[in-house]
Specification:
The chain is of the alpha+beta class. It has a domain of about 60 residues: Multidrug-efflux Transporter Regulator, Chain: A, Domain 2, CATH 1.10.1660.10. The chain is built from four helices and three strands; from the N terminus they run αβααββα. A hairpin with a 2-residue loop joins strand 2 and strand 3. The chain starts with 18 loop residues before the first helix and ends in an 8-residue tail after the last helix. The relative contact order is 0.11.
Length: about 100
């Protein structure tokens, strides 16, 4: 038993537990980058996902959409943004120049 404030092992047991719990497939592991956010693996995301992925504000993303710098797709009421387009847009932004 470990106190609630400390990290400790999690134990599973019962009829529904099999070997896959003990040895998960390698494809189930997700690498986390230096920002602590798992890299995106899907092609399109919602606006809140694009905000989290890019670090930009909702307003900045909407302005980029209005200028035509980013393209979006509509799926019902959802606005979907291509993460490839978002990465291209972010790469096209000017770099920070210290002291400039």
């Amino acid at each position: 038993m470990v106190p609630a404030s400390l990290a400790g092992p999690i134990c599973f047991g019962g009829i529904g537990i099999d070997q896959s719990w003990l040895h998960p497939p390698v494809t189930a592991l997700v690498a986390v980058n230096s920002t602590g956010i798992a890299p995106m693996t899907k092609a399109y995301g919602t606006l809140p996902e694009a905000v989290q992925y890019s670090g930009m504000s909702r307003t900045s993303i909407y302005e980029a959409l209005k200028r035509g710098d980013l393209k979006a797709r509509k799926a019902g009421r959802r606005t979907l943004i291509s993460f490839a387009d978002l990465e291209t847009y972010l790469a096209s932004l000017p770099t920070y120049q210290a002291g400039a």
